[in-house]
Amino acid sequence: MKQVLLYLPVLHAGYEQFFSRHSDAGEILVLGEGFRREYPGMAKDIRALPPPRAAGYLRLIAPQAHIRVIEPADLPAAVSGSEIVMPDEEITRDLAGRHDLGRGRKVVFDRTFLRWDRTWATTRAPVTFDGEICATDLARELLGTADATAQRSSDWWRQVGAVAARAGQVLGCAWNQHRPTEYAPYLNGDPRDGFGRGVRADLSTAIHAEAALVARAARDGLSLAGADLYTTTFPCPACARLVAEAGFRRCYFTGQYSVLDGEQVLRAAGIRLIWVDTVTTGPASQGVS
């Protein structure tokens, strides 16, 4: 028998498609409230239905399967089929590993986005850029300026530089740095050391290069509307929102990966995304005006 095991906080089209793909499952196991003690993030999910209520709705869209809410004490005995299917999420991956759910059966992790968890939120996705600039273009020169600016950062983990320009003229430069001094995390320790990756990013002592660039322009009364942004790393979601509000026209970048919804934020604002190839030499493969 094929079984499905998952955390089911709500029902939406993504879940319907997931269950449709696995409509041959004889049983669906829904994680109960007891799992909140093992996974505190579940308790923060204020939109979540009580598991019995979620299971009740699930019976309407998957009437062919036996629906059961299980608690931690029920695992691994509840998993008794020859195949177990789970959404590819942090919780299910951990449960499968800790309870050895793959012993004697086929395990399928369906890599489909159903909700934000830590893994999905920090996944680096390739950015679909609109053009490519090679060695002979002005964009590569300005990206070089951004890269040189990045070297001024005291951050041991990542150095990022950003440049604002209009018609090829530099309007401002900035790099990621810490406050109240650039040595703050090294003198007193980083306040985020006690938190996992992606957790409480607001406790960081750093200001990102793009955010610093926009803030300094605001301080100096300099409009960035219609300007171009050159950055050594694709903007994070928070910086993308600032870049969008500042009115930049294009974003030139070298780092080809985006997390969360950074790319979508810029595209929604009508900002053209242009990857600058800093490796290829020779004539430009595609010019962008």
What tags apply to this protein structure?
289 residues; alpha/beta; six-stranded mixed β-sheet; five-stranded parallel β-sheet; 9 helices; elongated; disordered C terminus
Unreliable segments (pLDDT under 50, ≥5 consecutive)?
281-287
Major sheet summary line = 6 strands, mixed
**What is the total tally of β strands?**
15
Distance between the termini: 59 Å
Identify the strand order in the major beta sheet: 7-15-13-12-8-9
User: Secondary-structure element sequence?
Assistant: EHEHEEHEHEEHEEEHEHEHEEHE
- Which outline best applies? elongated
Secondary structure tally, helices: 9
Proportion of β residues?
15-25%
Nearest-angstrom radius of gyration?
24 Å
Structural class, from helix and strand content?
alpha/beta
Helix content: 25-40%
Oligomer: single chain
Short description:
The protein is α/β, with parallel strands linked by helices and 289 residues long. The chain has nine helices and 15 strands.
Description of the molecule:
The radius of gyration is 24 Å and the shape is elongated. It has about 290 residues and is an alpha/beta fold. Helix 1 (about 15-20) links the parallel strand 1 and strand 2 (about 25-30). It starts with a strand and ends in a 13-residue tail after the last strand. The model is unreliable at about 280-285 (pLDDT under 50). Helix 8 (about 235-245) runs parallel beside helix 9 (about 260-270). The chain has 9 helices and 15 strands. The longest helix is centred in the middle third of the chain and has 13 residues, at about 140-150. The strands form 4 sheets. It has a 6-stranded mixed beta sheet with strand order 7-15-13-12-8-9, sandwiched between helices.
